[in-house]
Design a protein that fits this description.
Keywords: Ligase, Membrane, Transmembrane, Transmembrane helix. One of its GO terms (molecular function) is ligase activity. This protein has helices spanning about 5-25, 30-50, 60-70, 75-80, 85-100, 110-135, 155-175, 175-195, 200-220, 220-240, 245-250, 260-270, 300-330, 335-350, 360-380; strands at about 285-290, 290-295. It is built from 15 helices and 2 strands. It has about 375 residues and is mostly helical.
Length: about 375
C-alpha cells in the first residue's frame, strides 16, 4: 500500500472517531453536522474523485447502496423537497468514505471495539450520577434525557447493546472474561435501572439467543448446565426486585402506544398508495388518545415504506440482507452489530435518510464497515 494511502485512511479513521465522539461529547446537532461536513464530506469528495471511487463501484454491494439512495430522488422530487437531495448526498458520502477511505483493520481492532463500549458506558453512568447528585432525577427514577447530542436514552441504550454485541467476540477471543462479564453486567444495569428502556432488552434477548445457540452448537452439555443455573439465578433476581418501584415502572408503561402507532402508520401508507408511500416530509394528523401527536413511525422498516414506498422498503431490506450475508461470509462481527440494531429499531426507528442523527451510528456505521470489509477482501484477492 502506498504511503499516501496510509495517510488517507489514518485521517478519515480519526475523522470518523471524532464524528462518533461528537454524539456523546457534542452539545448540539449543528456541531455534529458541521464536524461531518468539514472533516468527512469535503475531504472525502476530493479523495473519492481523485481515486475514482477507490474501487467501490466494482462491488455489487456498493451498487446496491447507490440504487437504494437514488430511489429517494423519486419521492423527494414528487414532494418538491429539493433540500432532500442534499440529505441523499450526505448519506452516500458517509457510506463511501467509511467504506473506501478508512482502515478496516483498525475498526475491528481490540482498541477501537473495546473503547467504543467503554466510552458509551462512561457517558451513560457519568450522566446518571450527575443527574442523581444534582437532583434532576431521583435514584431509581428513569433518567429520561442524557446530556450532549445523543440525548435520547432509547437510542443510547440501543447503541450500548450494539457495541456490546461487537465487543463480546473480542473479549472471548482474547480471554478477557472478567472485563466481558463486567461489561454485560453494566450494560444490563444501565438499560434496566438507569435508562429503563425495554427496546434495548429486545436487543439483549437477541444477543443472548445468538450466543446460546452458538455455544450449544459448540459445547451442548456445558452450556445446558450453565443455562439451568442461569435460569435459577434469574428467578432469584426477579423475586428480589419484582416489587421495586423502578422495576414496576419499567413495565407499567405498557407498549407506549407502539401497536397503535404501527396500525396508524400502516393505514396512512395504504391510503397514500403502497408503491410510492406518502412522500418525504409527511406527517400524520392522527393523534394518540385524541391528544398526542405522532412524531415518527417508531419502526425503521415502516418508515421506509411510509416515506419512500414499497420500492424503498424492498431495496432497504435487500441491502440489509446482502450486508448481513457478506458479514457472515467474512465472519465480520459488525454483522452482529447491524443485526442487533435492526432488531431493536423495529420499535424505535425512523427515516434513515437525512442529516447526521442517532440512526447513523446504529445502521449506516455497521453497514459501511461491512462494505469496507468486502472491499478489503476483494483487494486481497486481486493482489
Amino acid at each position: 500500500m502506498k504511503p499516501g494511502k496510509i495517510t488517507i485512511t489514518s485521517y478519515f479513521g480519526a475523522a470518523l472517531c471524532v464524528f462518533l465522539l461528537s454524539f456523546v461529547m457534542g452539545w448540539s446537532s449543528k456541531w455534529t453536522n458541521n464536524l461531518y461536513y468539514g472533516l468527512m464530506v469535503l475531504p472525502g469528495l476530493v479523495f473519492l474523485v481523485k481515486e475514482r471511487g477507490a474501487g467501490l463501484f466494482k462491488l455489487p454491494l456498493a451498487l446496491a447502496w447507490l440504487a437504494f439512495l437514488l430511489w429517494f430522488l423519486v419521492p423527494a422530487t414528487i414532494a418538491g423537497h429539493a433540500q432532500f437531495f442534499k440529505h441523499i448526498f450526505y448519506v452516500l458520502m458517509f457510506v463511501m468514505v467509511v467504506g473506501a477511505l478508512t482502515n478496516p483493520q483498525f475498526f475491528r481492532s481490540s482498541a477501537f471495539v473495546r473503547a467504543q463500549f467503554w466510552v458509551l458506558t462512561l457517558y451513560v453512568f457519568s450522566s446518571a450520577i450527575y443527574a442523581w447528585v444534582t437532583g434532576e432525577y431521583a435514584v431509581g427514577i428513569r433518567v429520561g434525557l442524557l446530556p450532549g447530542r445523543l440525548e435520547n436514552v432509547i437510542y443510547a441504550s440501543i447503541w450500548l447493546f450494539c457495541a456490546l454485541g461487537l465487543a463480546l467476540p473480542m473479549w472471548v477471543k482474547e480471554r478477557r472474561l472478567i472485563e466481558g462479564g463486567l461489561a454485560v453486567f453494566l450494560a444490563v444495569f444501565a438499560v434496566v435501572f438507569v435508562m429503563q428502556t425495554r427496546t434495548a432488552l429486545v436487543g439483549g434477548a437477541f444477543l443472548l439467543g445468538a450466543w446460546l445457540l452458538y455455544a450449544l452448537y459448540k459445547k451442548p452439555r456445558l452450556v445446558g448446565s450453565a443455562m439451568a443455573v442461569g435460569l435459577v439465578i434469574l428467578g432469584l433476581l426477579f423475586w428480589m426486585v419484582h416489587n421495586e418501584l423502578w422495576f414496576l415502572s419499567l413495565w407499567n408503561r405498557g407498549d407506549s402506544y407502539r401497536i397503535e402507532i404501527f396500525h396508524i402508520m400502516i393505514g396512512e401508507w395504504r391510503n397514500c398508495g403502497w408503491a410510492l408511500g406518502c412522500g418525504i416530509g409527511f406527517h400524520t394528523e392522527q393523534l394518540l388518545d385524541g391528544t398526542m401527536p405522532i412524531q415518527h413511525p417508531h419502526n425503521i422498516f415502516v418508515a421506509m415504506g411510509l416515506y419512500g414506498g414499497a420500492v424503498a422498503l424492498l431495496l432497504f431490506v435487500g441491502l440489509m440482507v446482502a450486508s448481513l450475508w457478506q458479514a457472515w461470509r467474512l465472519r465480520d462481527a459488525w454483522g452482529v452489530y447491524l443485526a442487533c440494531a435492526l432488531v431493536m429499531l423495529n420499535f424505535d426507528g425512523s427515516l434513515l435518510i437525512g442529516n447526521p442523527d442517532e440512526l447513523w451510528p446504529l445502521v449506516l456505521l455497521p453497514a459501511a464497515m461491512i462494505l469496507s470489509g468486502v472491499l478489503k477482501a476483494q483487494r486481497a484477492t486481486q493482489a
